[in-house]
Structures are given as structure tokens and as C-alpha cells.
Fold each of these.
Amino acid sequence: MLLFIYVCIFILNLVAILLTYRFLGNELEKKEKGIFIIVGIAVMYLLVTIVYWLSTKSINLGQSMGEGQNLITFAFVPVNSMLILPFLASSYKSLKMGNMEDIIFKRRTILLVVVLLVVLIFEFFYFKDIQTGILNLINRS
């Protein structure tokens, strides 16, 4: 069961990366696309890890803490990435190509940050319940 979950998480991560790559278009260099994707995914991992830590710091997770944290982090990062990064990538591409003014790009970025904050707040309240469920799943394996 755990292997199936990891395979699904891998596929989600792959979809998030390919979706962001596609939204960056053909106009940008591959190096610039790679940097954008790596930085975007790294920021998502950092944010999800911080939210996870804040939401579960009052729970006694025992020895399964690392595996549960990995499952939650690896599952939520691609979901958050699919919600935010493709739209940010599209706006970034338009800005780089000269099709968008700086102020419009800033407004879109602010809107995406607000959406991401709402998603992270939602996740904050559910990580404790999800952590308990994952610990039960791990203990059954």
C-alpha cells in the first residue's frame, strides 16, 4: 500500500513539473525554465514543511514522524505546485516576452500568493488529522 502511495506521489510531482514546463512555453531557454521550476518546487517544499511543522508541533508523533512528514510533504507539494506554478509560469513568460506590463505581473503574483496562503491555511488545519491517519496506515503495514 505504501509503495502505491509513493508511486502516485511521484506521478503527481511529474505532472506538476511537466505542467509548469508546458506553461513556460517554447520562447524561454531550457536553462531558464529549469531554474524557474526548481526554485518554484523548492519554495513549495519549504512552505509546506513550515506549515506541517507549525500544525503538528503539539502532536506526539513518535518514531514514525519522519515517514509521515515525508508522505504529507511529498503529497501536498505537487498539488500546491499544480495550483500556483503554471499560472505564475504563464505570467512570467508573458512578462519576459514583453506581452505584459510589470504592474499587471505584480498584481497577478499577489493574487497567486493570496490563493497560496488560503490553501496553506486550509492545509494547516488538516495536517493534524492527516498525520494521524498516515500514522495509522504506517502502523498497519
Amino acid sequence: MGAVAGWVRVSGAEAEAHRLYGLGGWLRVISALMVLSVPGGVVLTWQQWVDSALGAAAVASNLLGLLVLGAQIGMAVLWFRLWPGFRPGYAVLAVVGTAGLALADAVIGPPGGPASADPVGDLVLEVAFHLAFLAYMQTSRRFRVTFEHRVKAGEGACGSA
């Protein structure tokens, strides 16, 4: 059992016996967002699809849309599988995805479909969402018990301090 910044790893059985184990509480909201991200991603990809006959930039934009959709589906699957590496995986996705999409917009242009009235504002909202979710995962006891099998140091498997 190693302690990491006040968190102690417990066995899977101990984590499952903990009162905070599971996708309850605020994790229900995140679960709903994960479910909604899949059809939302499909709709967004369809709206932004560009006729490939328009050239290499259109093909690149379409491939990028499919990559983003695949990442959304992958993260939803990993969420519901309670993947222990979800937090760092999501952090990588958030940084690489946000930076990658901003770079792609600069290089190949914004995706097709309805144009945003404020692309900078959209980017700021996206970054704010990722930062809020990452902060929640960093501090949530329920998330740590369920996904990482970690409890606060000094707390038993039953959740008593």
C-alpha cells in the first residue's frame, strides 16, 4: 500500500466495500455527459462533414472529425469500465485534443458546418470545462475510490475516518 499525496491504495475488494464506491453522487452527472457525448459527437461530425471532392483540407478535416468522435467513444467506454488510468488518460486527451484542434483550425481551417460566432470563446469554454473536470477528478473521494482504488490516508475501507 503506497501513499500518494494523502491517498492510500487499497485492494479492489476493499474499494468495492467502501461507502463511496460506484458511479453515484456527482459521478452520475459525468456519466450522463459521457452517454450524451456519443450521439452528440456523431451529430457534430455529421454537421461538420465536408465534401471530400473539395481537396486535401476537406479530407483532413473529415478525418480529424472521425478521430475526435473515436476519442469521445473511447473515453465513454473507459469511463463505464472504471478504467484506473482514466484521470491521466483524460488529462492527455484534454491537452492533446484541445491543442490539436486549435492547431488544426489554424492549419487546415475551421471544420465545415455551422460557423462559430466566437471561436476564441469556444476554446476558452472548452479549456474551462476540461480544467473543471480534471479538478473534480483530482479532489473527488468517490472518483478516487471507484477508479483508482485509493482512499484518504487514515480512512478504512468502510469510509470511516
Amino acid sequence: MDIIKITHLRDEFLAFYHQAVTSDAAPDTRFELWKELYGFSVTQPGVQDDQLARDMLDYAFPKYAQAVDHIEHFEPSHEEIFSLLQAVKEELDYDSALHMSIVFFVGNFESDPFFETDEDEQLTLYYPIEKEMQQMDLAKELARVIHCLKSGMAYPLATSIGHITLQEGIALHTAEKVHTSLALPAPSYSWLEVCNQEPNRIMINLLPHIQRNDYEALYSFTKGRGASGYFNEAIFVGWTAVKHLLTQGNTLCELSAIPDERVTSFMEETLYDVLDNAYFVQP
């Protein structure tokens, strides 16, 4: 039986926000209020960086006025979350019981969902709510969880660009199938349209970096501009590679079970195969 503990930090954030607004707190005082009443930071786990947290707060605070009504009325739907989880498990053919926690928090409008594990290997998904929560995105994160459990992939940290491409590709295509099966609105991706202008160049330029696991590379190919100058290059490559694998007869269930130690070499071979098909298509 699946057990998901669902909590949120909405009330803690609102206590900080309303006091900061009511008192018209100066930035220094506002940050002290934030630390006292809320203090949830999305900096790297285990790293206390007050300056980074302060910069994030200063950037986000003016934007909260437009989001506060949504935040005040946010209430996670247990039924919706369990429905998405069951659909993801069915797509990836995962029968084992899942025990995890989901914590919904208010981020800085650029916050991404992230995972942490404790000493007992208990998994917690942290999910930002300052923007409207899309079922597609939540399904992606649940697919990421199941993929990690099936493959033995380490979380929350990716071990290479190759791991990111496979993980993102499986998560995206799983979420798309879940949306189809649940008759939900079709998602749209601005990065997909942009990167499709030069798909082969993006794959060619990513290949020399596929084994890299340093922070600079991981950030560049996901949040920054990659080797070809586009945002979300690793995500685009993952989407493209997994789409190719599915057309070749593979299933998401099979792809999600590839052992962790084989992922990087498998994705490298896949990208060469995608490029071969692109450049040497037979009539």
C-alpha cells in the first residue's frame, strides 16, 4: 500500500509575508523576519548561505503580491496526487509500495522541485507553490521517483549529463502518457519549439559532455545555456532520445529499469543512433 505524507509550509510563509507587508519592513528587517518565521531555503542541501537566501528573497518579494491570493488558497489534493501516482506506476510497471513525503513550499518563482533523503533512506519531494501547480509537472516528479527506485539511480544528485537526459526524457514522456490516460489538457513546452531549430547541433555539442558530473556542466545544460547556446538542452536531448527509443520499440517500463551504471554509455550510444538516423536516412 502506498503511503504519502503530504504537508505544506503555506501558513509559515504567510505569517512572514503579512507581517513584513504590515510593518513595511526594510530589507534587512524583512530578512530577519523571514529567518524567524519561515526560513525555508532552496539552496543546496546542507549548505547555509544567508547571502544567497537574502538575494533570492529580495528578488522574489515584490512578486509575492500577485501570488499571495493563490498561495492563501492553496490546498494539496490527496486524491489528485494518488491518482497521478497510480497512473505513473502503471506506465512504468512498478508494483512495489511507495513510502514518501511531499512538502509544498513557497519559493522564489525560479525554484524547481527537488528531492532529499534522510539517514533512513526516506524520500521527500519538495514542491514549490508560488506559481500555479500543473499536474504535468507533478506527474514528472513522481515519474522521476519511480525511475530512481527501479534503476537504482542515486537521488537527489544526478551522476552525469547522461543520467539527466535519460531521467528527463522518461519523466516527460511518462507524464505525457499519464495526461493522455487521464484526459488532462495537453502541455506545451517553449524550449521544445526553440531547440527544434537546431536539434542535431544540440545533440552533437552535448555528446562530448555526456559523462560530466560537475556542477558547472549540470547547471549549464539544465538551467543555463548549454554548449549550443540554448536553455534546457539536456532536457530537450532527453525528450528527443527517449522519443526515438520509443519509436524503435522500447517501452518506458524497459527504459526506466536500465541499471544506473549503464545509463551514461546507453545514452551516448542512443544519441549516435539518433544522429545516424538523422543524417543517413535511407529512401
